Amino acid sequence: MRRVACALAALGVLGCERAATPSIPAQQSALEQAAAARTDLRPVVAARIAELEAQLASAPPPALDAARLEQLDGLLETLAGADERLKRAAREDLRSLGPTSVARLGECLDDTSSSNAVRIAAAQALGELDHPLAARVLLTRLTAGRFTRDPDPWLRAHCAWRLGMGTQDWVVPGLLLCLRYETNNEAVIYIARALAHHRNFSGLDALYVVSRQDPAENLRQAALGALSELASAANFADPADLYRAWKDGDERLLDAPFSPAHELEVWRILKLFGEWQLRPVDDGRFVLSLEHHKVTPLLVAALDDENRYVRVHAAQCLERLGGRAASAGPRLLELIDDPQMTEQVMLALGALRYAPAEPALLERASPSRTLEIRMSATQALGALGLASSEPPLRGQLAEKLPGDLRPALLGALVGCAPANVSVQEARELRSFMVGGEVDSAAPELALDSWLIHRASVDEGSRAVLEAWRAIKGADSRERVSLRAQALDPLLGS
Amino acid sequence: MNWRAMSGVVVLGLGAWALVSIFSTPQAPAEPVVWESSQQCAQCHTQVYDEWKVSWHAQSYTDPDVRAQTEDFTANKDCIDCHAPQPVFTTVLGERVLPRATRRIEGVDCIACHLMADGRMAGTLDNSSVACRPIATRDLLKPEYCAGCHNQHGTVDQWRQSKYAQPGPGYQDCVSCHMPHRDGDPQKGRDHTMHGGHDINIVRRAVDLRVTRENGAAVVEVENVGAGHNYPTDERSRASDLFWRPLGADGAKGEWRQIHRFRNPYRFEVDLVNTELPAGAKVRFELDAPESRGEIEVALFYKLNPLWADPQRPDPEREAQLVHSRRLAP
Questions:
Q1: Per-residue pLDDT of chain A (493 residues; tens, 9 = 90+)
Q2: pTM of the full structure
Q3: Which of B72, B82, B117 sits opposite A441 (nearest CB)?
Q4: Less packed terminus of chain B by CB within 10 Å, N or C?
Q5: CB distance from B116 to chain A under 8 Å?
Q6: Which of B22, B82, B102, B271 to probe the A interface (max A CBs under 10 A)?
Q7: Which residues of B touch A375 (CB under 8 A)?
Q8: A15 φ, ψ (degrees, to nearest 5)
Q9: What CATH number does residue A229 fall under?
Q10: Could B122 and A476 be called an inter-chain contact, meaning their C-beta atoms sit closer than 8 Å?
């Protein structure tokens, strides 16, 4: 009947219009259906921010009158002087002024016409106030100084130092962001120290880099000294032990929960995940991935937020936290079929090494699933690294596998049972690495893991691993080509 | 033939056509295809595929510069979102794109742009009987479509502020310039090479460079005459530099001296200001060096990498592409 109607319409008999473009409503309804599959979504982030802001709200401090301002300036001059007795008295008097002095101290800190000694004294006075407003000024200076190519990076180091002496743990996310962009290695050392003071050891990586690579001997030594001090202060025998404990989410590093102000900072970052622009999202993913593993429950809670991007990026942060976010495993497994983040959830489960996820991941790696889901599930199984995953994964090698699934499958086998990966399979990975038909990064990483395993059991493979590792370079095409040749002694040419 | 006879022929013809339409055997709908690679599209759409294959969209994941900056997208996974996105239609038009797990090496490919949530392809006509079962959708032409990635650097917002975004005869959008009809003929479809800032001829059409003398002083003007967004658009990587040099009477050329740089700095360079030239805008510079009163050459260069080998002595002729060059007599 419809064909009759349309044919008549062609004759102008009926007003039958050409079907309207259905694409966008169809897309939206598909997503609405997907979202509707979860009935527990709610504005988790907005609600928590509102609660915490109400809890932490406080009236701004009154402004200082002219006489007090003059007194403050005098006290700062004294604090910047040399007389220790007078300095002690000035410190006490400045502290007694409380948060009312913050605005003026901030001006003094930023005043490039002031002497270095006065500016340092201002940083000291702000630090010793140990007040949220004062810490905000120091953090802003630490950030803004970098932005304005501050000719005096020492001032940033001072600000970081002071931030690492108080009790304002909410500065940690800000410090982590500074660590991302800081270019002055002295400031980097003090940022890492400040983070450690607040029980965040993500700065250890930066300290290792400075200790090995800075051209100045004194900074290399300062970084080494900081590593030893931080390990000792945290009751670890050496920095490497502390580093491992941090990366593993060791219970020994678990202490008091985040303060409400710190938690509020985390929620504010999570809110940014819903922004359209990727810049704050990138910064947020960086910061939360380096946070203390105490951040895990907050990220888990964000998995129920009504905003799809908040959920997706929270899952990505859990993935990047890896083993440190192990406690997120059960909830992630429950959410594995959230259609708007199933891939991210699977990858997080793998990175967390959450063994109970294995059956669910194996099912999703099976041919009944879409390629996108199979791919993520296969990668997750490789990261999970359970020997029991090997037989079902290996069983799929007999199939004709589409796209880049085959190298992913071989890579997963390396993760699950490296000893059982044959030379022939390694050759296949090498072909994928240089063939240009798939992304070279995944087979390159898989071969790296395979070589590490081989080197641990075979003397002859160690030289190959060393040769392989010695080949560096940003140009991936050139690098993988050379690395492929380096494998010749093991795999043949 | 009189009008009655003519009417009869027309009515009979239309009637016959109607009967054919009603009783002809319909074409069977095609079996749904699982789309695993854009190479599948090449079987039917050879020209489009070949155009796309040499485009920068096809190289968004494999370009050595991008891979070097992201350490092969392993150390920095944040860039995957735009460099290997999930299909725009499945993420929802106008939303920020999300990263995909498969066929990343194909970058921004046929599937990323055309695949819809129901497995059909967005296209220019409805046809259920061919493998990709296209559905005609004008959404493919909307600037919001490009915004998912390109507005991360503000390009679509810049266009929205421009005269080209105003409804009327002067309206031109992303596809007007970057995906024009082949040979200007709508019947031939749109060019999928998607030329942009990597094509120096496009860059040359975007800006004009003028030099004049006012009271003996050299005056240089640069005007964004052709880009519907800032010149250059994008963030961090792209820069356009204006230089001048004195020319001796014997033909000797002096050293290049920089007048200005057009560039939007990267996010951590917030001490630098955005000096891009908005659509339709022009800037003017007056040279005050005594040598500029003699014969000079003024040139505008373009770079896809903002760094100079030696920032103190940039060598634009070696390190950048020439956009325009003008000579000015004393």
A1: 444 443 433 333 333 333 333 233 333 334 444 544 788 999 999 999 999 999 999 888 888 899 999 999 999 999 999 899 999 999 999 999 999 999 999 999 988 889 999 999 999 999 999 999 999 999 998 887 666 666 678 889 999 999 999 999 999 999 999 998 888 899 999 999 999 999 999 999 999 999 999 999 999 999 999 999 999 999 999 999 999 999 988 888 887 889 999 999 999 999 999 998 888 999 999 999 999 999 999 999 999 999 999 999 999 999 999 999 999 999 999 999 998 999 999 999 999 999 999 999 999 999 989 999 999 999 999 999 999 999 999 999 988 888 899 999 999 999 999 999 999 999 999 999 999 889 999 999 999 999 999 999 988 899 999 999 999 887 888 999 999 999 999 998 7
A2: 0.87
A3: B72
A4: N
A5: yes
A6: B102
A7: 101-102
A8: -90, 45
A9: 1.25.10.10
A10: no
Which helix (H) or strand (E) element contains residue A37? none
Environment class of residue A134 by beta-carbon count within 10 Å: exposed (0-12), middle (13-18) or buried (19+)? buried
Of A198, A214, A247, the residue that ends a domain is: A247
Spell out which residues of chain B touch residue A27, defining contact as CB-CB under 8 Å. 89-90, 92-93, 116-117
Mind telling me how many Å the CA of A421 is from chain B's nearest CA? 23
Strand ranges in B44-138 using DSSP code E only, listed in sequence order: 122-123, 135-136
The tokens 């940039």 sit on which residue?
Answer: B314
3-state SS, residue B260:
strand
User: Which residues, including other chains, have CB under 8 Å from residue A397's CB and lie 6 or more apart?
Assistant: A406, A409, A410
Please identify, among A247, A263, A297, the residue that sits at the C-terminal boundary of a domain: A247
Please indicate, yes or no, if residue A236 is contained in any of the structural domains: yes
Domain carrying residue A445: 422-493
Q: Do A441 and B36 touch (CB under 8 A)?
A: no
Residue A343 covered by a domain? no
The number of domains in chain A is 2
Cα pseudo-dihedral B102, B107, B109, B111, rounded to 10 = 20
Residue from the list A148, A403, A436 with its beta carbon closest to the beta carbon of B37:
A403
The alpha-carbon gap from A56 to the nearest alpha carbon of chain B, in Å, equals 31
- Pairing of β B122-123 and β B135-136: parallel
Contact, A393 vs A406, CB < 8 A? Answer: no
User: Using alpha carbons only, what angle is made at residue A19 by residues A15 and A24, rounded to the nearest 5 degrees?
Assistant: 140
Terminal-to-terminal C-alpha distance of chain B: 79
A154: in domain: yes
Pick left, alpha or beta for residue A81 (phi over 0 → left; psi -120 to 50 → alpha; otherwise beta).
beta
Q: Which of residues 23-82 of B touch A (CB under 8 A)?
A: 26, 34, 36-37, 61, 64, 67-68, 71-74, 77-78, 81-82
Interchain proximity A441–B117, CB inside 8 Å: no
In angstroms, what separates the C-alpha of A437 from chain B's closest C-alpha?
8
B18 and A7 in contact by Cβ < 8 A?
Answer: yes
A19 CB neighbours in chain B (<8 A) are 126
| B95-129 per-residue burial string, b: 16 or more CB within 10 A, e: under 16 | bbbbbbbbbbbbbbbbbbbbbbbeebbbbeeebee
Which residue has 């000294």 as its token pair?
Answer: A225
Contact A46, A54 (CB under 8 A): no
Note whether residue A414 is domain-resident.
no
**Chain B partners within 8 Å of A318 (Cβ):** none
CA dist B50 and B170 (Å) reads 31
- Enumerate the residues of chain A whose CB falls inside 8 A of the CB of residue B37: 402-403
Whether the CB of B308 is below 8 Å from some CB of chain A: the reply is: no
Please tell me the distance in Å from A163's CA to the nearest CA on chain B: 22
What is the C-alpha to C-alpha distance for residues A72 and B72, in angstroms, rounded to an integer? 54
